[in-house]
Automatic annotation (TrEMBL), chain A:
<dbReference type="GO" id="GO:0016236">
    <property type="term" value="P:macroautophagy"/>
</dbReference>
<dbReference type="InterPro" id="IPR007194">
    <property type="entry name" value="TRAPP_component"/>
</dbReference>
<keyword id="KW-0813">Transport</keyword>
<dbReference type="GO" id="GO:0005783">
    <property type="term" value="C:endoplasmic reticulum"/>
</dbReference>
<keyword id="KW-0333">Golgi apparatus</keyword>
<dbReference type="Pfam" id="PF04051">
    <property type="entry name" value="TRAPP"/>
</dbReference>
<comment type="function">
    <text>May play a role in vesicular transport from endoplasmic reticulum to Golgi.</text>
</comment>
<comment type="similarity">
    <text>Belongs to the TRAPP small subunits family. BET3 subfamily.</text>
</comment>
<dbReference type="InterPro" id="IPR024096">
    <property type="entry name" value="NO_sig/Golgi_transp_ligand-bd"/>
</dbReference>
TrEMBL record, chain B:
<dbReference type="GO" id="GO:0006888">
    <property type="term" value="P:endoplasmic reticulum to Golgi vesicle-mediated transport"/>
</dbReference>
<dbReference type="GO" id="GO:0005783">
    <property type="term" value="C:endoplasmic reticulum"/>
</dbReference>
<dbReference type="GO" id="GO:0005794">
    <property type="term" value="C:Golgi apparatus"/>
</dbReference>
<comment type="subunit">
    <text>Part of the multisubunit transport protein particle (TRAPP) complex.</text>
</comment>
<dbReference type="GO" id="GO:0030008">
    <property type="term" value="C:TRAPP complex"/>
</dbReference>
<keyword id="KW-0813">Transport</keyword>
<keyword id="KW-0333">Golgi apparatus</keyword>
<keyword id="KW-0256">Endoplasmic reticulum</keyword>
<dbReference type="InterPro" id="IPR007233">
    <property type="entry name" value="TRAPPC"/>
</dbReference>
Amino acid sequence: MSSSSKAQAGQALWSKMPKANAELFALTYGSLVTELVRDYEDPIEVNTQLDRIGHSIGVRCVDELLSKADLAGLGASSTMCANLRDTAEVVAKVGFRMFLGIQAEVGGFSQDQRSFSIYLQENPLSTFVELPAAGDDDYQYGAGGDDLRKLKYSNLYCGVIRGALEQVNLKVECNIVRDTLKGDELNEIRVELKEVLSDGAGDDYKEE
Amino acid sequence: RVTPLSRIQHRGGAGGTYLAQQRQLNYPHFFFSTVSHLPQKTPGSTRLELQLVVTPRQFSLAVKMTVHAIHIFDRKGKTLFTKRYTTTKQQLMQDAEQVSEQRKLIFGMLFSLRELVGSLTPEGESPALHSVKTGAGTLHCYETISGLRIALYTNNNPVMNTLPGGARAAGGEINSKTSFQTALKHIYSEIWVECVVRSPLYRPEDIQVDPPEGRVKFPGRFDIKCTNFELKLDEYLKSMPWFL
């Protein structure tokens, strides 16, 4: 399946999806993260929570994508990705485009084809966001100024990718490698395939 | 008398002659038969005609439902949704044990068949189980990549209820618009995703299957009943011409 037709599919799907206000979206997410930081205080813990939230989002998004894929001309026969590269392209070109309306690029395939990177030029979640510089927040909580640099603001994406790919039997690990909030020129999410799960009857099957 | 309900004409020679079934017109099951060597309108050409022939059926007094039941399974084998469309009282009062046994059997069968189909399919094509046909009925299946399986158990000969624009709808081969695969796909994408997945109460790990009599409902679990799913599903199925 060629890359351009995936891009077109993404574009077509994006135009069909109901849209929400981008600022509302970004600000809601921002306030969510702020609350989390206030509650947990430890940025690492906040990252985990964001990942968990993203995971449950991803689980639902994948069904939407698969169901709309037919309409976009991806077709039942070609939605089966032959390898990780295809999966990566679908996630970036169709998935990100369809849900967020942004252009994402894939690249950085490793030697064994088990990991890749997704590059985002623009990040709709981080409009209006600035991470405080080191030394700015020495509250009574004793949080060192450096701490918020450890916060992965867009960790939601990692969770979404992880959750979505889990539903199609791919267990992956995602990390944000480069972040525009920290001064890099683009956002990079590194996705690594851990294992391919196999279908099987789970516990519930026997319990019933 | 042979009553042709639709005709598709092809030019081109055809060998032998197949006998057209000549019976009386009766209700409503259709049967394909190829007829060649019919009286030729233009000399020197043979026409191959595909005619619809209606075979005789005993007119039964009981209303025959086309769709018997629908089941939805998730990837792990848990039944997410099941519904029986039947008029006989007996079937409704099936033992709880039996019902869950039946569901497990259906899932097991679908699972094993999928493995089988996967190993039989030639390289490069995507394996997909469409239907399993027995003497009594057919089980149509649709499976998504995310592991959701929808199974629709129907009669063997779907009754085409509506015959508007007669020739087209009655054209032996089921129209792609009303075929079961399309219907199942539609159920997945328009009804399941819209009503269940998008519901804010949806939790994939914690779905409450309809509890058999006597068992307490677990609070906090997501019940499909609290969405519009069943309503929309019924609406959709009723709008299909093969649903009685």
